[in-house]
Structures are given as C-alpha cells and as structure tokens.
Amino acid sequence: MVAPVVHGSSFFIPIGGGPVTGPIGPIGPTGTTGSTGTTGPIGATGLTGASMIGGFGSTAIYIQDGNLHQIFHGYNFHGDPIGGYTGGYVTSTLVKGPTGQSVNSIDGGNTYGGITYTSAYVLPSGGATVFKSRNSDEIITIKAIEVTGDSLTLTDNTESGEINLHYDRGNFGYLNTQSSSGIGSLVGTDGGTPVRLHGFTGASYDSGLNAIDVRVKSYKEKSKFLTVGDGDYDIKKQGDTTNYSGTINPNVAKVFTIDMRQLDDDDMHESGFTGPVQLEFENASFGYTGNSISGIPAEGKPNLSKAFTLIVHGATNSSAPIERFTNVTWPLDLAPCFSGGTDIFNFFWLPCETRGTICPNEASWHGNLVQWKSSDNVIDNSTDNNPFWCHTVAGTRSMYNSGEQNYNGIEIMNSAGTTGATGACCLGDGMCVHTIESKCFGYFVGCGTTCGSSSESVCLEKGPCCSHNTETKETNCTQQTIDGCINYSDILHIETNFGGTGNKCYNMDCLSASKDLGACCDGLGNCELLTEIECKNLGRFFHGEGISCTKTYGTETIEICAGGTGACCEGSTCSNNTTFKSCVSDSGNLYAGDRSKCCDIDCASDEFRGRNASIQALNLQPGDLYAGGMVVGIYRPNGGAVHGHESFGKDKTAHWTDLIYGATGSTSDNIGSTGTSYRSKYDFHGYGFTSDKGCDTLNQLDILEDDTRIDSYYVITALSPLAITGDREVVLLQDYPSATAEFYWGNGGSSWGPIYDQDALKYNDLNSDYKNRFLLNEGYWYDEFMGEPSLINLPFNTYTTCKKARSLGADGVSKLLTKPNQSPNGFWHRNYGFYNNVRTISADNALSQGYNGTDDAYTSGQFGPGLTADYVSAFRTCRLYDDRLNGTTGAVNGFTGSNASEVSSWYIPSHDELAFIAENCISNNSYNFNLNSYLLANGGSPYTGWYWSSTGAFDETKGITGGHQEGVMVSGATADPGTVAWAMKFDIDGSHDRFLVGKKNRTHNTYQVRPIRMIRCDGKYSSDKLTKMPKVLRDSDKNINQD
Q1: Beta strands 255-259 and 223-226, pairing class
Q2: Which of 755, 776, 866, 954 is the most buried (most CB within 10 A)?
C-alpha cells in the first residue's frame, strides 16, 4: 500500500539517519519526428482467398428444403485445396416461387364488403368497382369515372396519381322575415332603417312546378330573322332544285320572319316564284315547368302551352305536291297555301287526338292563318284570293272528288268510342262528307241527311247566314247557301253562322250568334239563350247558335221549346213528330223542341244522369249563391272524388285493421292522419228513397263516369262557420268576436236515438222491432263472443251488396233495416249525413224529454249525460241555423226570395260529404274548382282549421286492448257507445299533405261547425221520417226550425 502524500504548512524533519532519493519529475515534451527512412523490400504473394462457385452444377445459390443456401470453394493456409463446404448465409424462412419457366401477367377484380376469409382477414366494407376487363397478360381496362349533378366535381391529379371527387353541399340557413304572404313567398328588403326582410305579396315559388309565380310588369318577346339562300342558311336551297326547306326551333324566340325576297334573281324560279318551301318545327320544350317534351302534362301538373308567330314574305307554291308544314295540325286538316305576299301564321302547342299520321305524339303545333297576302286583302274562295287554292293542284282533296265520300278516318273515331247518328257535313268549297255531329268541322245538316250529288248537293240549299265582323263588331244576315255561308267566313275578321235550311233571317238573332248563344230547351217548354256547352252540360236540348227562342212561319209565331212538333223523351225512349202538349202530358217526359229529331238528342235515364227538368232549370253551377249558401258542386256517392281518411276508400277485400284505425288516444289538435284522395263508396242501404233500378244494372255502373249520377245531389255549404251568442242566436263571428265558434260534438252516452212522431210524441222508428237495436247503443265493430271470425266479417258488413241491402225491399226504410249492426263506425253512415243528423237530434230529444222505450229497450239516461247549460252542441247549433235562408244571400237573416221545394234542411255533413268539400279546397283537385276563393270573393270565410263531421266512431284504443267495451259487443248483446267522432282539419293554402283527419273526443275537443244542405239531381224529395229533420225540442223556445 502506498502511503498518501500529506501536504502541510509546518516545517518538519524526516525521521531517519541519512538523505533519501526524491520523486521522479514529470515527463518532458515529445521531441520533433525524425525523417522517414527508405522503403523495405516487397514481401511474397499471399494465398488465394475462398471464392463462391457453382454448388450443384454451376449454381452458386440454390434452394433446398425451402431454404436458400450458398456454396464456397477455397484453399488452406498452406495452399492446398480444401474441397467444397457449405458456408455463408442460410435463410430461416421458406422461399417460394414458380418452378420452371414462368411469365408475370396482370389481372384485376372488384372488391366488396362483407366477406370474412379468416378472423384476421376481412374485406373492408364498401369500395369502388373500377375493374372492367383483362385484355392480355400485360393490359387491363378499368372503368371510366364520371359524375352528374351540379354538386359533384371530378378532377385528375396526374402528378400525385390521384382522382379527386369533390361534393359541394351548398350553404344553408334561414331568414327571419318581418312578414310574409305565405309559405313559398319570395323574400326581399324594405326601404326602412334598419333594412328588414319581408315576404313579397303575389310572388312565390311553386314547388310542384319548380317555377316562380310572379306578376310580370313588362315583357319583350324575342324575334328571329331567318336567313335564306343556297348554302349554310336557316332556310336553304335543296340541291339544283328550286325547293327550299328548313327547321325552326320555336323554343328560342316568339316571332320568326322568313323573307324569300332576299334571294338573288338567279335563285328565283323562272315563273317568278321561289318554289316550294317546306318547314318543320321542333317540338315544344318546357324546361323548368316539369312538362314532358310531348306537351302532355306530368301527373298532377297543369298543361302549359306554347305559341309563336311566323311571318313569311314572298313564298309561293309550284305545281309540285309538297307539304308546306310537315308536323302541324290544321283545321279540316288543310294547310293554307303561300300567297307570294305577306302571310302570317300563329302556332300553338296543344294536345290532340292521334289519327293515323296526324298528331302521332298526342300533341302537336296547331296552326292558324292570321293574314294572307296583305293586311287589306279580302279572302274570296271563288277567286284567286283563296288561301287553299294549291290543294286542287297538289291533289290533297282527291278523297272528296265524289262529294259524298265518308270522312277520312271515321272508322278510327268510332272505334275510339265516338257515337251518334251520321249525316251530311258541309265543309265549304263544295266539299261534303258523312260523319257524326261531333266530328263535323263545318255545318252539320242533321242526322239521316245525305250529301247528294255534286250538282244537287245539300250544301247548295239556302238559309239565313249571320255574319259578324270581329273588328267593327257589326252583324248582318243574308240568305246564303250553306257553302256560301261557310266560305264567307274565310274573309279576314268575318265569322259566320248558318241558321238552317228553309229558315229565314227574321228568325235569327245574329248578335247572340256572335256570342255563341242560341236557343236551349229544358224539356218543359222553357227556353234560355246559352252556349252549346252550357246547354248540354245541363242535359238540355240545344238548337244552334243564333237560333231565337221564338220562330215565325208565315203569319204564325211559335215558342221553339213549346211549339211545333219534335222529339219527345219518354224516359230512355224517344218519339218523333210529337207536340209539346202531348209530350209533357205524362209526368217526367221532356220535349226537345220544334223540328228536333230523336237521332239528334240523347234521352238518357233520369236516374243514371240525375236529370230532372225542374232541377236543371235552376242552372246551378259551382260557386253560385243559392238557398242561403254557396253551391260546392254535385256529390256522387257512387264514385265521386273525395279527400278524407283512407279507411273510407277501401272495399270488402281490405283487412280489418285497415278499416278500424283512426283514433290516436290523443285529444291534441296537431295529431291526425294525412288525408288522401279516393272514390266515394256507394251505400246500398242509404239515401232514404226507393231505388228504381235493379241490382244487376247498378252493379254494372262505372264509378269513374261522371255522368253516372245515381242518388247524386248538389251540396250547398254555409258561407261561414257558425257562431252563437249566449242567448243562442246564430251570428257571424266577425260581427260578434266574443261569440262561441267552436263546439263539443254532442252529449255523452249514445248519440244514436229513436225516431219519434213529434206531433203525437210516440215512438215512430223504422219498425217496432228496431227498438231492440238500442241495446247496442251505436252498434259494434268487434263481437267478443265470436272473437276472431267477427273481425274477418268486418269488411263484408262494412261494404255490403245491393242484393243484401234489398232483401226486404227497395224502399228507403227496408234498405236501412238490412244494414248490419257491425261496421268500423257501428250504425253511423260514411256518406249519408242527413240520416246521421236525424239520429243525433233524436238522441238529444230522448234525453231532454225523458223518452223511455217499452220493455226497457232503451232509457232516456243512456243518451246522456248532456252538456251543461252553458254549452250548446254542434248539432243543436246547426239546427239553430234557419232553413228559411234562401235566394242568393248567405246572410243570417237572408230571407229574400224562395227556395225550390227540393232543398233540404241544414245538417252537419258526413265524413265523405266533408271529404267532398275538402277535395274542392285542395290544390289541383279533381273538379278544377277552388271553393275557398269563391267563398272569399262572395263575402264568406274560407274552410280552415278543424271541422266536425256527423259520422260518429269508436276509439279502438279503448276496445279489446284498452280493457274497455267501446264498440265491443259482449254477452247479453250490449256494447258501449263511442266516445269519438270523425273530424277534419282544412289547410288554408290547399296543401294536400297538411289536411288532417281523425277520430276526436266528442266531449273534450271543440271544433267548428259549417252546415250543408242538398238538392237531389233527380228531384226526389219528401217529408217523411227519413227526409224531414226532427225539431230540437230543448230549443223550441227559439222558434227556429220548429215547423
């Protein structure tokens, strides 16, 4: 061990005898390197190192047992070869690959999600399928990628090798406007400070048409001047001929001008004409309107027509038989000729009837000649001023050479369903064809008439010809041949009407003729000047435009509808040469008027068409004011279009669950089913009158035929919903804002009451046995004892047959007695609203007057409890609306004038009657009538919000599964009455999807009441227990409707 060195500050002397050696000093610095010596001799060459040579054969690397091996050969340190040995690297994993000669090829495929190969290998979900095909070992084809729509953008980044797909979702938000004229209004700013947003009045977006509906203050139509020449022109020369042709696109402008006078003299025909000009028009396209290119509207969309004007200068015709317009429909199928002057045509894109090569696409351009040659030219078919002169040259009239040939294509028209007796039809210019009146485009001489020979043509017979100058408004009458009268109308601004052969001008009313008016007979001797369409829509007999209601023969003047001799309709049969007196001596017969023929009129069954002379004489139209309200239209129980709850549009093939639902268990006014449009189902037990036709005939009726009006009737609605004051005075809510305008439906308990003779105060129901039905209160929908089979029977008891309904007879009482006790709504009727009201008022009378049935069949208590004294039910409110309201006023005290005896009392409509009113309030409805608009225009209130119907119902949520017995028949043949009734919510804008309908609680929900009244089209009416509304006895002190 080395002793440590100790350092100190004191002096000391070492122990020992003599001096010792001190420690070694530090090493000094290294000196400088000396110079390099000389290079020594080169040593001997070393041994050759080991090298890699062939292992097996000449292979230095080989695979054995799936591993990679290397072989080395070399020498030892003495220079002796040491032989082969395995050295180098041996792989630890297997090496795999093709054996023998191999070729690398390329292939492809498409992946898709969902396949699991192993737990560790699952294909991803989704994926693109871009592989298309394998062309060869070295080439594959992938699919092209494209996008459609304005929101997607596809780009190719060649630098990064990527395809980029960009989706623009747009910008979304909302505007908080100050006011609006309705949903869909365009939004703009006002001039205030600060600037505020508001909705424009009269400017809205129509999502159905995908268009903006605005008022246009000024509009400039685009015109296009078409170039003409030999080469690249709009109207170009055809080769070495003198023919010119071109295609016009009417969608790019509204006025087109062709001036053939711009041609060089060398291009003109040697005659000075331009030669034949042939024009083709492209089909109309509508773009944003949603119409198809054919012009036929898409489902639920209106038909929007287009129009344009063509002005042609200097075009004339040669002797070549060439069509001037290749896809245009013309009157009489005759295209006007070119005059060489200035010809002006108007064209309209409209639907049309396909007839062979005419109108092949069910729509075409309809042409109309406006001017021929010049503005002051007078057209005269007997001179060169005849716009159709070229047809005799071209041979297009060859089909009429005999003057008696049938109308071309009449067989096709008849096969399409057109019927009627044929007769002579004069077309002018000596042409006469045989056809039916509806297909005659000239003057129809009459059924059974013939054209005659060319020299003795019926068209050469004379009669009065009324002419009307549409520019000066002058009218005149001259004696002309039929042909002459028709040809006279070819003159610009002149319209003519022929008054019949053998007639005279003093029997003509040419002013009426200029307005398309003529004598219209109602069959009972009354005459009115109407248009032909108006007259025939009323089922009356039209005598011709300009024909007066009186006619003079020599010194005798007769009433055309009550004099002379003519056709007499005796039901569905007809007799000729009958006088008015002998015809109408039998009740129900109709006289068609002087000189009428059975082959010219239609004596259809009154019951099917609902034709009754006295009702027709009222001439009621939708929107008319009558009987204290407004005419909605004609409701057809057998197939009329309505908009209500879909369960009412089913049939006996429906499942029971489709019929019973409608209750939600909620009294909320925001809950209900969205309404749907359907065809009203006929009630063979209903309507209170004897059926005249047998079941076989009724079962063959087409519900889609609007003219089939069995048991149909006019519906007249009150102009406003009813409001009532505290002393039970019916008032207008706008005059009495504090009045009650929403009401409970009825009393508690059963609302199906017994009918009483109110004079004798005795039971007077359908028969004596009917009282036993009151044990069921309001009927039932489920039989607890029968169980599941009762549900199977439900559709068959709901939609019964005619045979079953008439098993006891065809009178009104017998048909009601056969009505089953079971239906989704029990005893209540789906479209026989008047009878629902009779029963409900009878129930209220039984409660208030203490009516009790014999043998304890019913007690007054089962029709209650009633509402408290502060409340008046919907039905009592309705019967406080005076039946004496009449004439054309809807005022509460409007008693001016008188109603027809066929007008019923006011009553609350049934579900389907209310659905008929709803159909007339929705947009684009089946009747093309906007009831709410007419109500507003006549001082009434539109239908909006919830309204009660008179159809009671059961709350199925309180039936089998609810643990109660509402509408469920239990042992002892009893069933609890319903607690709900059908109600409907109207949308003020007429939007289909905002009309709600559902079963609402009778004594919890309060809704509006708007009564209706009816007039049967067949004129049937009576005052028996099925057609006379009972008096509400608890309101007898008001002395309203107490007769």
Answers
A1: parallel
A2: 954
Number of C-beta neighbours around residue 863 at 10 A: 29
Pairing label, strands 676-679, 723-724 = unpaired
Distance from C-alpha of 234 to C-alpha of 724, rounded to nearest angstrom:
74
CB atoms within 10 A of CB 412: 13
Peptide bond into 942 cis (omega under 30): no
What's the Cα-to-Cα distance from 393 to each of 121, 331, 389, 428, 780, rounded to whole Å? 85, 19, 7, 18, 81
Classify each residue of 650-673 as buried b or exposed e, where b means 16 or more C-beta atoms within 10 Å of its C-beta.
beeebebeebbbbbbeeeeeeebb
How many other C-beta atoms are found inside a 10 Å radius of the C-beta of residue 702? 10
Cα 545 to the center of its chain, rounded Å: 35
For residue 714, which of 280, 1001, 1018, 950 has the smallest C-alpha distance?
1018
pLDDT one-digit tens code per residue, 595-628: 898 888 877 544 445 556 567 667 788 999 999 9
Helices (H), 828-977: 833-849, 874-879, 911-919, 931-937
Helices (H), 598-638: 606-609, 613-618
Residue 25, burial from CB neighbour count under 10 angstroms (0-12, 13-18, 19+): exposed
Q: Would you say 853 and 865 are in contact if contact means Cβ atoms under 8 Å apart?
A: no
8 A C-beta contact, residue 745 and residue 873? yes
- How far apart CA 527 and CA 538 sit, in angstroms, is 13
Cis preceding-peptide flag for 194 (omega within 30 of 0): yes
Location of structure tokens 């298309």: 132
**For 159-215, how does the pLDDT look when each residue is reduced to its tens digit (9 = 90+)?**
777 777 777 766 556 666 766 566 777 777 776 777 777 777 777 777 766 777 776
Exposed, middle or buried, 413 (CB in 10 Å: 0-12/13-18/19+)? middle
Angle at 159 between CA 155 and CA 163, to 5 degrees: 30
User: What is the distance between the alpha carbons of residues 141 and 132, in angstroms, rounded to a whole number?
Assistant: 6
Q: Helix, strand or coil for residue 130? A: coil
SS3 848: helix
Q: How far apart are CA 567 and CA 600, in angstroms?
A: 9
Rg, Å, the chain Cα set: 48
pLDDT in tens, 274-313: 667 888 888 887 754 434 444 444 444 434 568 899 999 8
Q: CA angle, corner 1037, sides to 1032 and 1041, nearest 5?
A: 45
Angle value at C-alpha 638, between 634 and 643, nearest 5 degrees: 70
Query: Which pair of structure tokens corresponds to residue 177?
Result: 């406007």
Cβ proximity of 732 and 738 under 8 Å = no
Which of 248, 226, 247, 228 is closest to 236 using CA atoms?
A: 228
φ/ψ of residue 854, rounded to 5: -70, 155
How many of the other CB atoms lie within 10 Å of CB of 231? 7
Collapsing DSSP states into helix, strand and coil, what is residue 260?
Answer: helix
Residue 666, phi then psi, degrees to nearest 5: -115, 145
Place of tokens 């001439």: 619
Q: Which amino acid is at 184?
A: G
Strand partners, 235: 228
Lookup: tokens for 989: 């804008």
Q: Nearest Cα to 259, choosing from 277, 241, 282, 280?
A: 277
